[in-house]
Write a structure and sequence with these properties.
single chain; alpha+beta; globular
Length: 313
């Protein structure tokens, strides 16, 4: 088996020693090449080249951003038979995709699981989400666990600004930024229109979160579950709010933090296992996928693609 290990040396929990242990362990079972990323998009370029070169396995060692880039590189020319299998060894702060797959967060334990998967040939097909946006920044991008427009994308944008100033990503930073972004958005909340299959248009929506699996994300060790019935075996989940008033938001936040999900309410539009979600906005709004800011858009379609990728588990 030919394998490519793609390492993001800047990821929160990635160290040179850990990378060397991982590479040494993998090299005992496969013919291994290693790429360390040094620019945005490098992981995607390396994974795309691995497809051309006929690799059997591409392993992403880093955070969710690294995994997302590798996935987009492997699927650069679309989902089709014969693509390399994906391996994941967490090295970031959240590692939502790995957690949703049931993989260990500890890199050493995750490496052992990956070696076991290689030895025994265990894998699973997973569904992925695809984003196509226009108006502002046009994008064509795959996502592995979540995407959204509005509040969550504003949080991602502000966190990226903080990280550019040298601050480290942490649950506390995300919580503070979410609070600040909420009050900023309340002054001029976006007005979204949401379309899903076989239903009338939903207008005057204030935020829209789309899930490809459960959980939607993690806050430290706490799983945040917006659409508990959404999984890698089905379509997309939608969580959208018609109101952003403080009582409404506090009620849902308290529910999500105190329980295992399944929120309900009059202001909430929630669906599981839908084929697509189309969102339009009169004003350009921020768009994020897998915690990565793509830019702004006025129209975006999120599509669920079943069985798009094979993952070593």
């Amino acid at each position: 088996m030919r394998a490519l290990l793609v390492v993001n040396p800047q990821a929160t929990a990635t160290t040179p020693a850990g990378r060397d242990v991982l590479a040494h362990a993998l090299a005992s079972d496969v013919k291994l090449d290693v790429v360390e990323t040094d620019y945005r998009g490098h992981a995607a370029d390396a994974a795309a080249q691995a497809v051309v070169d006929g690799y059997d396995l591409v392993v992403a060692h880093g955070g969710d951003g690294t995994v997302n880039e590798v996935v987009n590189g492997v699927l650069r020319r679309g989902a089709r038979p014969g693509l390399p299998m994906l391996g994941v060894v967490p090295g970031g702060s959240a590692n939502v995709f790995a957690g949703a797959l049931g993989l260990p967060r500890d890199p050493v334990e995750a490496t052992y699981r990956l070696l076991q998967a290689i030895e025994h040939g265990t894998s699973r097909r997973v569904s992925l989400g695809h984003v196509s946006s226009t108006g502002g920044s046009d994008h064509d991008r795959w996502f592995t666990f979540n995407a959204g427009v509005g509040w969550d994308a504003d949080v991602v944008a502000n966190v990226e600004e903080q990280r550019a100033k040298g601050r480290q990503a942490s649950p506390a930073l995300y919580a503070r930024t979410a609070l600040t972004s909420y009050f900023n958005q309340r002054r001029q909340p976006p007005t979204l229109t949401v379309q899903i299959p076989d239903e009338p248009l939903f207008e005057d929506v204030r935020l829209a979160f789309v899930s490809n699996t459960d959980p939607w994300t993690y806050l430290g060790d706490k799983a945040i579950r917006l659409n508990p019935s959404t999984s890698f075996d089905g379509g997309l989940g939608l969580f959208a709010l018609h109101g952003m008033g403080l009582p409404t938001v506090l009620r849902y936040v308290a529910h999500l933090l105190a329980t295992d999900g399944n929120p309900k309410g009059g202001n909430l539009l929630r669906r599981d296992d839908v084929e697509y979600v189309r969102v339009t906005s009169r004003e350009a709004v921020n768009l994020q996928v897998d915690g990565d800011l793509l830019g702004t858009c006025t129209e975006v379609e999120f599509t669920g693609v079943r069985g798009a990728l094979t993952v070593a588990v």
